[in-house]
Design a protein that fits this description.
The chain has 845 residues and is of the alpha/beta class. It is built from 36 helices and 17 strands.
């Protein structure tokens, strides 16, 4: 493939081991190629492999990069001299002297023999290794462990129970009063969702509280931050609403007299309304008074007075407008006060809950992923030992490379800046050594705020860090790679056409001007095909009550579209359709089906492809506990512990573990007078083969359950009893992955808790265990995954499935919002209501 001269020159500058570089790279423009070639050129230039650090953001990307580097270096060891001269000359863009060949051949061995290997790690793996190296400086137990999702859910549940128990025992405590405030206006689910949102985003709460002397002071400042008058309270605002400067004294008396004298029925009704409101008790008067001036939507009533009233009292209309606006302003202030009060109650509870969780983590020596980044950033930037740690790292790092820089969060950038801070500070401990920074990314490819990413920081850091290096007299390249090696002209042209719309481009990038995508495959055929939307069909009339509950599912848009996609793919494979660009027949592994988020369509298309005999890799994320294989195995455990549970026993009977038919189960269950288990044992004694099969299996499980070891119990069912083979026949390799993960969970549980089958079943009932599956193209299967999960992958044929829902709605907003852009922004709980305070409106927008 002939690479244009301009692109080749950009690649040479990006891989230049003598200079730092910041590269903005379009998708498919060879970002990983440039990154690996830069590492190789650093090694070729004599840099010690241990002094290079590559930070990536997924384990798969780290493995891919490491594999490419070792493959290339390993290939060099076996090349003839003239071949190696050609490779090195192309790599460096200049002729290579013969004496450089022998060191180049030894690079593979040097990289392999480096203590600890090449440092190509995820940011979290680097942070964990850093904290393990300096635990005392970071204030940690040297034997800390990283918290998994299941244990994190357990800690949250334990802290919530402890908090609620304490609030119930001490209702007059600040937390007890806060809980009483919240349960009066929110259900359990809404309150738990809001609490978990604050706990998950505890950085915002910490930043808010750090800006004040105490938690009480921070919460007391919330009303004013939301627009409530200084010094006001809910009581004072309610009282103020019941008094009106514009409608009091002589004027109000004259107005009521004029309204009574009017011939208009609406005016006499209005007079009666004023008299009723004035005669009412204070707590009743406010809504009556408000209804005279405002509609239910809190808008001023239109044309309140007739002409005969205005002839007598011309100032009445202006006074009415003033009073209506006063009431609106007071309602807004009262709304701000309510938002602040409820938010303060939530934040107080969340603060206590975070404290409980942190105490439990500290006692058990646990850190979650956010802790790793937070502790590492603090260790490098603000701790008492920061200079010592920096000095030790300064001795060991000369070159830092950052991959996927657009997905780097502010705290992660702090780590990068701390690691590279000394690079521009003049001579280090070893004068004359070169030190470089390399970052590659693309703001357009940052989606879903991955790991708290702030895409704009890539451009900002590129400017600030680049300027700092340049001011120190160090060479820096600011580069752009726009040429795609992956896509054809039809594909990149379609992308540019979509984002030619200014509104679409504004949501994609802060760079001015349209997107620019070029391709080296400009002459190759390509096609972008748009299918018409699959619309929802009218609901069918009610059918027979005996019909399956999912009988109408086939009419849903997701299922119909999945059937069309599967038919299209099966048709290509059946007819031997060839890929135009290569002339080779289409294989299942040539096809990617990408979705915005996992949902009904993913299940439907996997099912449709299997029904048509098309090899499909299955889901890229598996809910281990929610998977039917796990549910069956847990049901077996429950039956072993309590065979009298009729529903669970029936579930196991129908599962592949026993394999009874619907008819056989009906025959055993129908007409019985007691428990199903009793009926099964009785029928088995009478010689019923189906009943005996079920009885024998359950009896065997019961004898094993007495030992209480979940791993041994499950491994025997899936091993010697044949459970794995039965599920593999039904689900393929997906079943193996679920079973293996379930057994791993059982082993982990036995290592952490007193072994007990009942406790393990109860633990898994909480869910939350996911397998992130790598869908390998080499297996020649259709891969169905999210757009985010497909980053870095390629295929000749790609289906992009749009769910057709609104991309932006109120439901997409987080439960907790920061209401200013300052360093310590107040945060509030997003609630319903007629009025939303102006700062919240701005934050929501």
């Amino acid at each position: 493939m002939k690479i244009p001269v301009a692109t080749r020159q950009t690649q040479l500058l990006a891989t230049d081991p003598e200079a730092s570089a910041f590269v903005s790279a379009n998708a498919g423009s060879g970002k990983t190629w440039v990154l690996t070639r830069r590492v190789i050129r650093l090694l070729l230039d004599g840099v010690d492999p241990g002094r290079i650090l590559c930070l990536t953001f997924t384990k798969a990307a780290a493995a891919e990069m490491s594999g490419r580097i070792f493959d290339e270096l390993g290939r060099w060891a076996g090349l003839a001299d003239d071949e190696l001269v050609g490779v090195l000359s192309e790599l460096e863009g200049k002729p290579v002297l013969p004496e450089r060949l022998a060191p180049a051949r030894r690079l593979f061995a040097r990289a392999i023999e480096t203590p600890g290997g090449l440092k190509i790690q995820t940011i979290h793996a680097f942070a964990e290794a850093l904290l393990q190296r300096f635990p005392l400086e970071a204030g940690l137990d040297g034997r800390f462990r990283v918290l998994d999702d299941a244990r994190a859910a357990d800690l949250y549940a334990e802290a919530r129970t402890e908090l609620l128990t304490d609030c119930a025992a001490h209702p007059d405590s600040p937390e007890g009063r806060a809980l009483s405030e919240l349960v009066a206006i929110a259900g359990d689910e809404a309150l738990d969702r809001a609490l978990s949102a604050v706990v998950a985003d505890r950085d915002k709460l910490t930043a808010f509280f750090d800006g004040t002397a105490s938690v009480d002071e921070a919460l007391a400042a919330l009303p004013q931050a939301l627009g409530a008058p200084a010094g006001a309270s809910r009581e004072s605002l309610v009282e103020e609403m019941a008094t009106s400067p514009a409608f009091s004294g002589p004027f109000l008396s004259r107005l009521i007299d004029s309204l009574n004298a009017s011939k208009s029925k609406s005016m006499t009704t209005l007079a009666e309304g004023f008299r009723t409101a004035l005669a009412a008790a204070p707590e009743v008067r406010r809504p009556l008074w408000r209804a005279l001036f405002l509609t239910a939507k809190s808008e001023p009533r239109k044309r309140p007075f007739t002409k005969d009233i205005l002839d007598v009292l011309p100032e009445a209309s202006e006074r009415f407008e003033q009073e209506a606006q006063r009431l609106i302003d007071l309602e807004r202030a009262l709304s701000a006060m309510l938002w602040a009060t409820r938010s303060a109650a939530l934040l107080r509870l969340a603060d206590r809950m975070i404290g409980l969780i942190e105490a439990k983590k500290a006692r058990l020596g646990l850190l979650d992923f956010d802790d790793l980044i937070e502790r590492a950033a603090a260790l490098l930037s603000h701790s008492d030992a920061a200079e010592w740690v920096q000095y030790k790292l300064d001795e060991g790092l000369d070159h830092v490379l950052v991959d996927e820089a657009q997905d780097t969060s502010p705290r992660q950038w702090r780590i990068v800046e701390a690691l590279t801070g000394e690079f521009s500070a003049g001579e280090g401990t070893r004068p004359g050594r070169r030190r470089t920074v390399f970052a590659v990314g693309d703001e357009k490819q940052s989606i879903y705020s991955f790991q708290g990413a702030a895409p704009h920081l890539f451009g900002l850091t590129r400017k600030t860090l680049g300027r700092r290096l340049a001011d120190a007299g160090l060479p820096v390249h600011d580069l752009r790679l726009t040429l795609s090696f992956r896509s054809t002209a039809a594909v990149v042209g379609a992308v540019d056409a979509v984002f030619r719309n200014p509104e679409a481009h504004a949501g994609l990038s802060t760079d001015p001007g349209p997107t620019v995508h070029e391709t080296v495959r400009g002459r190759e055929p390509g096609l972008v095909e748009l299918w018409p939307a699959v619309e929802k069909l009218p609901a069918p009339p009610p059918g027979n009550w005996e019909d399956p509950v999912d009988a109408t599912a086939a009419a849903s848009p997701a299922v119909r579209l999945a059937a069309r996609v599967a038919d299209e793919i099966a048709g290509w494979l059946r007819s031997g359709t060839r890929i135009a660009a290569t002339g080779t027949p289409i294989r299942p592994g040539d096809i990617l089906v990408l979705v915005r988020k996992r949902g009904a369509f993913v299940e439907a298309v996997n099912r449709a492809l299997k029904q048509r005999g098309v090899a499909v890799a299955g889901a890229d994320r598996l809910d281990v506990v929610g998977h039917i294989v796990t549910q069956d195995l847990l049901a077996a455990a429950r039956v072993a512990l309590l065979p009298e549970d009729d529903l669970t026993l029936a579930t196991v009977a129908k599962s592949p573990l026993v394999g009874l038919s619907e008819e056989a189960l009906f025959r055993l269950a129908h007409g019985r007078r007691g428990r199903l288990w009793d009926a099964v044992r009785q029928r088995a004694a009478e010689g019923d083969a189906d009943a005996e099969r079920l009885r024998a299996a359950v009896t065997l499980w019961m004898s094993r359950a007495d030992r209480g070891e979940p791993f041994a119990f499950l491994s025997r069912i899936v091993g010697p009893d044949g459970g794995r083979a039965a599920y593999r026949a039904r689900f393929g390799r997906e079943a193996d992955e679920v079973i293996d993960e379930l057994l791993t969970l059982a082993l982990t549980y036995e290592g952490e808790e007193t072994a007990g089958l009942n406790g393990f079943v109860d633990r898994l009932a909480k869910g939350g265990e996911l397998i992130r599956r790598e869908l390998d193209a080499e297996r020649d299967e259709v891969r169905v995954m999210t757009v985010h999960g497909s980053k870095g992958l390629e295929a000749p044929i790609v289906f992009l499935i749009d769910p057709g829902d609104k991309p932006a709605s109120e439901k997409n907003l987080p439960d907790v919002l920061a209401v200013s852009d300052g360093p310590n922004p107040p945060i509030v709980w997003r609630q319903g209501g007629a009025f939303r305070p102006a700062p919240v409106e701005t934050a929501a927008a």
